[in-house]
Design goal:
The chain has a domain at 63-225: Aldolase class I (TIM Barrel). The chain has helices at 17-30, 48-55, 81-87, 97-102, 107-119, 132-136, 140-151, 157-162, 181-198, 201-206, 217-224, 241-250; strands at residues 6-10, 38-42, 60-64, 91-94, 123-128, 164-167, 208-211, 231-234. It is built from twelve helices and eight strands. Strands 7-6-5-4-3-2-1-8 form an eight-stranded parallel β-sheet. With 253 residues, it is α/β, with parallel strands linked by helices.
Length: 253
């Protein structure tokens, strides 16, 4: 099965509404003539109205950076999935390594957010990955297998086939270090093999697996040329229109 490449930009806690609108406008112009790659950007919550309005009918999707498991309630500071969907979001990130490490989110909470995303009509981009000590301790498959088993618990096969997995080695996020294309391929291949063992065959063939971890224009093409690397989840390089557009264009088959 030929999977359509998918590149997403996580803007993290950067770009207020005015700056975000300017970046969205620049991306809309830079990517106006490409239609071979699915593209999404994840602004801050406060910038979502400006960005969804700017990117309407552009072909560039908008994602939330996180959602709360509940639709609504007494959760000060939290945002529900239906709220961001009403703003025009198509996707939401779930389980980013910073949510896991800084907010101590565990796999059970992440699983509840995955289910909330589907209930809200959002497609989740589920982030998984190992730390440097876990990689050095030869625990990569054990760690990723556990994250997948709990994170995807209770989902129907059709739901799993429609979501995106983002493999982000924690040791390569914001450090300038990047997994080699061979390391990325080996790990993505393991993830796809895990899916083939635990779900019907069509699921592993359909799920798109992005690589995330210091992706830049200079290394994007080599990473995404690997057969099981279906795109990228981009951090710092997504904050400039020219660098993010270059990564998107590097994903064109």
């Amino acid at each position: 099965m030929s999977r359509r490449p998918f590149v997403a930009g996580n803007w993290k806690m950067n770009k207020g509404p005015n700056e975000a609108d300017a970046l969205a406008r620049a991306l809309k112009a830079a990517l106006a003539n490409q239609s071979a790659v699915d593209v999404a950007v994840a602004p801050t919550y406060v910038a979502l109205p400006a960005v969804t309005s700017r990117l309407k009918h552009s072909g560039i999707h908008v994602a939330a950076q996180d959602i709360h498991p509940s639709v609504s309630g007494a959760f000060t500071g939290a945002i529900g999935g239906e709220m961001v969907r009403q703003l025009g979001c198509t996707y939401t990130l779930v389980g980013h390594s910073e949510r896991r490490s800084l907010w101590n989110e565990d796999d059970a909470l992440i699983n509840s957010k995955v289910h909330a995303a589907f209930r809200s009509g959002l497609l989740p981009i589920i982030c998984i990955g190992e730390t440097l000590s876990q990689r050095d301790g030869n625990q990569v498959e054990q760690v990723l297998g556990a994250q997948l088993a709990k994170g995807l618990e209770g989902l129907e096969a059709d739901q799993v086939a429609s979501l995106t997995l983002a493999y982000e080695p924690v040791w390569a996020i914001g450090t300038g270090r990047t997994a080699s294309p061979e390391q990325a391929q080996d790990t993505h291949q393991f993830i796809r093999r895990w899916l083939s063992v635990n779900f019907p065959d069509f699921v592993s063939k359909a799920v798109r697996i992005q690589y995330g971890g210091s992706v830049k224009p200079g290394n994007a093409a080599a990473l995404m040329a690997k057969p099981d690397v279906d795109g990228a989840l981009v951090g710092g390089a997504a904050l400039q229109a020219d660098s993010f557009a270059a990564i998107v264009l590097a994903a064109v088959p």
